[in-house]
Amino acid sequence: MTAALGPVGVGFRSRRRIPATIVACLVVLAVALLAVLLGPLLFPDATKQDILSSLMPAGSPGHPLGTDELGRDILALTVAGAASALVGPVCVAVGSMLLGILLGTLAGYERGPLDFAISRWTDLLLALPVLLAAIVVSGVFGGGYWTTVALLILLFSPSDIRIVRAGVLEQAARPYIEAAQMLSLSRWRVMFRHILPNVSSLVITNAMLNVAFALVAFSSLSFLGVGVPPGTADWGRQLTDNRAIMFDNPAAVIVPAVLIIAVACCVNLVGDWLGQRLTRSGGVA
Amino acid sequence: MTGIEVAIDGIDGPAGPMVAAVAFGIEPGASLALIGESGSGKTLTAKSLVGLLPGGFGARGVLRVDGRAHPLDATDAAWRRVRGREVSLLLQDPFTSLSPVHRCGPQIAWTLEAKAGRRLPKRELDLAVAKRLAEVNLPARVARAYPHELSGGMRQRVAIAAALASDPRLLIADEPTTALDASNQAEILDLLRQLQLERGMAMLLISHDLGLVRGRTDDVLVMRHGEVVERGATATVLSSPEHAYTRALIAADPVLALDAERPDDALGNDADLGVAGRAPLISATGVVKRFGLRTVLDGVDLSIAPGQVVGVVGESGSGKSTLARCIAGLEREDGGSIVFDGRPLAPGRRSRTPEQMQIVFQDPYSSLNPMMTIGAILREALGVGGRRPDEVPAMLELVGLPADAAAKRPAQLSGGQRQRVAIARALAPRPRLLICDESVSALDVQVQAQILDLLGRLRDELDIAILFISHDLAVVRRIADTVTVVWQGHVVEHGSCAQVLDQPSEDYTKLLVAAARRDTTGRTTVA
Asked: With an 8 Å Cβ cutoff, is A6 touching chain B?
């Protein structure tokens, strides 16, 4: 009986309206994306220092959000900071997703010693405290933006590996995989053409959540002074640098802090919603 | 005014009206069977009576329980006061309707407490649960078991006990035995009938199987395409059906037609004769398979000649599916030999090619990749056999599907259509042996008959050998030339289909045949 309802149900759901919350989140993310793309055009010299106009409060002429101690315009700095706040986390999420897909699928489908090795490796990485490890590595290797990206990819990958592995384990036991084996298809074809599309909703949802986590991790590292070098436009960096002037120009701290929270929340909500939609459309039956 | 009165003005889905106006009444202590194939609207009708229609569906009408009217389009909050109290729903699948993480006792106790409206003292509750379990012929210790520790039949008994714990006025049983073995089906239905009579409760039994409701319901309602086509006393409808569709349903039912002559029987009683001159295509000798300490196959022999259909029957757990999977290479046997066309095959898939054999699995819902289109699925299988992708329409035609099915995904097809796709995929590499592992068990009788006809036709046209695994003797009788009966990993009987099923010589086979016949008391008046 459910079979008779299935076809109607599927067509019906795909025309479902997007909830207002998600629309709002998408708008926020679109604005952030615009800032990344247009920031360099709008404010080509955002990090230019001007001691003469230092510590101006919000609403000053020419500086709607005021300036910081070094006389940098907060608005320009914030818009320019969107790039480092978003590009890194997206790279981390995509990188750890790819690592997760590769290692997780191998572990879940091949089983045996390979699964054991990969699983113990993820256990090891999961046991490391992310921030502490990042601080130590930055201390030893000198830090820098892309070192941090690489490190976070490594530290974020265990959750991707585990999620993909669990999804693959579940799918690999299904008759359609045995049917593929009956056709003597190559293992790579079975893994990446048959199984992977069926775990894609899990993978994509998790990657979206990782963007939010990575954004917070980046900001925390910048705040602790180990992420991006001083002088770079970065929201986390702004928080550190402007702590001292919190009462002279509150906007210098509040604006980047609110943006970090807003973008992280929006990415999270969109990720959740996307995951539910993908699951319903048959990704994970 | 007592009893159940249902007046449905119509059920609408997102794609238009699904069920036309239906009205019926059930006296206390009486039962009504609602019969129809999938898509006939019988499950929608049942769900509308408990307010559980899927999203996008709406029902108009009214349900009266002992005179209390419940509008069918009531809010969910209103339904919650009716559902599980005045009306209980028993679902098809005891594997999903019980919570896997709770013991069976508490699952019955929840309803008892909900009905009492207060928390009951533990001792009182334990006693009440034990009493409910005894009602469905289960020992009290089942209360401490998790659902996965029980067999399918026992699980469905627990589900019945849970559904009846609120002492409902109406029990709606939606295909309550479809997921069970043949030997369990009759027991569960008899139990339902007995409980319903004892309690003076009304019962609505939904089924696609006319044979099963014989002698177990007072009245019957036959639905097709959302409309009632025939109604009346069960015995009358079964013995003298008026509508052509009801007659077709009775004719398509393999159990009701169990005694009907097979066309082949006239030619020569022993079907082995027809293929005696041909060397076996595949022969398995002394196959042994162990899972841990449990020996599932203990020296099983089987051989199939080209163009021959060999049926393997046995209850679930007898090892018949494991045998099929060892032959297909999906399991690695621990002993014995499997020879294909004179060449021994090592255990496992690697020694086998797709052109040698293919499998059609039981469940057409999980045997097709949900993310691939039918066209992509068939193109892949054709490619494996070295055939061109433009043969997809021809493959679809071969299994009786329209050409536009190629662009669809499995979710857009019905169970029968999906099974046809699975058969087309299995045939694409031109295998010489087709293994059907309970391939028609999950299908409605009508679809079952169509698929069996299709398999028979393919055997004649393509001269392939078929290994047909089933727990359903009636189905095996329809298609198989010879039958092998498997019990606890041993072959207990082997011979031509007519010989084994009509004059079984082993006790176990007699038991199986008797169980298959018990489903149809007074069958002779129908056939």
From this structure: yes
Q: Look at A1 and B42 and tell me if their CB atoms are within 8 Å.
A: yes
Nearest CA in chain A to B362: A175
Interchain proximity A181–B330, CB inside 8 Å? yes
Q: Are B331 and B393 in contact (CB under 8 A)?
A: no
A-chain residue closest to B355, CA distance: A183
What residues of chain B lie within 8 A of the CB of A285, using their CB? Answer: 365-366, 370
Partner-chain residue, chosen from A2, A179, A197, that has the shortest CB–CB distance to B371: A197
Nearest CA distance, B12 vs chain A (angstrom): 12
Range of the domain at B53: 4-252
Distance CA A73, CA A96 (A): 35
Q: What CATH number did the domain enclosing B113 receive?
A: 3.40.50.300
Tokens representing B116? 């009492």
SS (H, E, C) B240-293: CCCCHHHHHHHHHCCCCCCCCCCHHHHCCCCCHHHHCCCCCCEEEEEEEEEECC
B426 near A CB under 8 A: yes
Number of domains present in the structure of chain B: 1
Beta-sheet strands, E only, within chain A: none
Of A175, A182, A198, the CB nearest to B363: A175
Q: Is residue B438 a part of any domain in this protein?
A: no
Q: In order of start, what are the domains of chain A with their CATH numbers?
A: 74-280 (1.10.3720.10)
Whether residue B48 lies inside any domain: the answer is yes
pLDDT, one tens digit for every residue, chain A (285 residues): 333 333 333 444 444 678 888 899 999 889 888 888 887 777 777 677 766 666 667 667 777 777 777 777 788 888 888 888 888 889 999 999 999 999 999 999 988 899 999 999 999 988 888 778 878 887 787 777 888 888 889 988 999 999 999 999 988 888 899 999 898 888 888 998 899 988 888 888 889 888 888 888 888 887 777 777 777 778 888 887 888 787 877 788 888 889 888 888 998 898 888 877 776 654 443
Residue B71: inside a domain? yes
Contact A12/B14, CB-based, under 8 Å?
Answer: yes
User: What is the value of pTM for the model shown?
Assistant: 0.65
d(CA B315, CA B330): 21
Identify which of A7, A8, A182 has the shortest CB distance to residue B359.
A182
Let me know if residue B247 belongs to a domain.
yes
The residues with which B484 forms a beta bridge, in sequence order, are: B312, B494
